[in-house]
Specification:
By secondary structure, the chain is an all-alpha fold. The protein has 6 helices and no strands. Keywords: Signal.
């Protein structure tokens, strides 16, 4: 049971990492050109740093499953940092959705789901990317 929970947590962190990688790609290009999202531009460094930390947390958990709890804590802290650094309602809403998706996914794993649905994380990450690149 413990091994299954560790594997599940590792999968949750890896799914979150994949979402972060997708976000990084979109945000890196989204603020380069003319961008109507002032908060995206103003907070690009914070968002990029937070996503880098999320990515590193996922990689750490994949290498050492005993670090999964710390990795999830890092992911949540950095999502909070993105949310705290913006005044844009659309960005706030997208970050809230991503936060909820990650929390729901982690809760499913902690409740014993060995194959939770990560599509909500992917959808929320895409929404945040779209908000910041539109």
């Amino acid at each position: 049971m413990t091994a299954d929970r560790r594997h599940g947590r590792r999968v949750a962190t890896l799914a979150t990492t994949l979402a972060a990688v997708a976000l990084t790609a979109g945000l890196a290009t989204g603020c380069d050109g003319v961008d109507n999202s002032l908060d995206c531009l103003q907070n690009a460094d914070t968002i990029a740093d937070s996503l880098k930390a999320i990515n590193e947390a996922g990689l750490d958990a994949a290498k050492d499953p005993t670090r999964t709890d710390k990795s999830i804590e890092t992911i949540n802290k950095n999502l909070d940092k993105i949310d705290d650094k913006t005044d844009d309602g659309k960005v706030d809403k997208a970050v809230d959705k991503l936060n909820k998706a990650v929390a729901d996914y982690n809760r499913a794993i902690l409740n014993g789901d060995t194959d939770p649905d990560s599509s909500k994380i992917n959808d929320a990450a895409d929404e945040l990317k779209n908000v910041c690149t539109s």
